[in-house]
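Entry 14. Structure prediction run on the chain below.
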Amino acid sequence: IHVYDAFNPNNSLTATINVVGSEKEIEVSGEGLVRFSGGSGTMTLEVQGSSDAYEFMRVQVPRGVQSLNFPLVSRQWTQGLAAQHRVSFEPDRGVVIGYFDQDDFEVYLDEGLNFPAQNIVYFNSEGRGLNQNEGVRGGGFIMYNVPIGMRTITVIPKHSKEYLVRTLVAEPGVLNLLK
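Output returned:
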């Protein structure tokens, strides 16, 4: 497991990692070796940086994964990007962040839900917000004010017919990470 600042990968961080459904807490400082119980399917991990300067995150990963990277996102960055792009951040709703390396892309919340486009901010690989309605290769997106509950996120690459679809639970105070 490697825990680091999302936009400064050389800055290793300390975090506590919990497997949802287990009482086991794992503290990782920078990099560490951790063994999870076997099985198939996915497991949900919650990651809290040792400093309150970083968002509390939740991510789903395959149980058989050999290595995990946790790019922690600072609250200052999350709130600053919202302010820069004039997003009226509602703290009683969820937030989703995702990174996409393969291609330029677009992202959608729940098929058929009229989710306001101004609540989606795309950013480049350095974390700088983009003033456009699609993401760039190596960058990502942050989706603010996601309605609470089970949600489906669809990432559509510009030059591929294969979509990335993930289901997550949006809730206040949790930054869901799509990898």
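The chain has a mean pLDDT of 92.
Filed with the rest of this week's runs.
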